[in-house]
Design brief:
5-stranded antiparallel beta sheet; about 130 residues; single chain; globular; mainly beta
């Protein structure tokens, strides 16, 4: 995601799929029209993805590209210990999700549904090669 567009990357072919980037509007049903972009997005292995914008997020069904009913919701109300706004990047690795903001990150335990103790931590020294 970048500004008002997104792209899809084919890992096997190591390239962006033809026809991308595409606009978010009209391709992801239910993303609030006021969201002129997505700050961060992360996919779980259950077919759901979470899009973050400011202090809110939506849960998206990846098969249909539709936002689940009842969203957007406030991060602070549903993500124990997570940054309450301003998430810059997010990824999942195994049973953990990593959320980055500025020069720090938080490790989120998917099974326990909470930020692991000792976070946020500084990116420098913990993620070699990341430029932020």
């Amino acid at each position: 995601f970048r500004d008002s567009e997104y792209l899809r990357y084919d890992i096997a072919l190591d390239r962006v799929d033809a026809g991308y980037p595409r606009p978010i509007a009209g391709n992801w049903t239910g993303v609030p029209a006021s969201w002129t972009g997505i700050d961060a997005a992360v996919a779980w292995d259950n077919g759901k993805a979470y899009f973050f914008r400011g202090a809110q997020y939506v849960r998206v069904d990846l098969a249909t590209k539709d936002v689940d009913p009842g969203y957007p919701k406030n991060i602070v109300d549903f993500w124990p210990g997570l940054y309450t706004s301003g998430i810059d990047h997010a990824i999942t690795l195994g049973d953990k999700a990593y959320f980055f903001r500025g020069t720090t990150y938080e490790r989120y335990d998917l099974g326990n549904d909470e930020v692991d103790p000792g976070y946020p931590a500084v990116i420098a020294g913990n993620w070699p090669g990341l430029p932020f």
